[in-house]
Amino acid sequence: MNASEVTSIWFVVAASVAATYFWRGLGMIIARRLHPDSALSRWFACVAYAVLAGFIARMLTLPEGSLGEVALWDKLVPLACGFAVFYLWGRKMEAGTATAFVVFVSIALWRGHGGT
Predict the structure, then answer these.
(1) What's the count of helices (H) and strands (E) in the chain, helices before strands?
(2) Could you give the CA distance from residue 47 to residue 25 in angstroms, rounded to a whole number?
(3) Residue 116: predicted pLDDT
């Protein structure tokens, strides 16, 4: 790798960080003025759920790379566990997502897909 390529990589990283923190900062400014129970706050929450649901649905139905080699059953079991925890813990998205992740990794390790 020459100096120009390294500089280009760092420029891309810096631009990505700047763009991310710009939008986070803007979100904090906007969120300060919103009431947590307002219609707009509920709309943002719905959009967040929809984005996560769409991402999960795409990963299950149109997987790329290594995930494409995983059996559908090995993806549906973690999904079901994640939904169960999501609803049992009072609709906590983080708990459901973390549970699905842990179950998926556990199945992969149990089947021997986690080694090097």
Answers:
(1) 4, 0
(2) 19
(3) 53
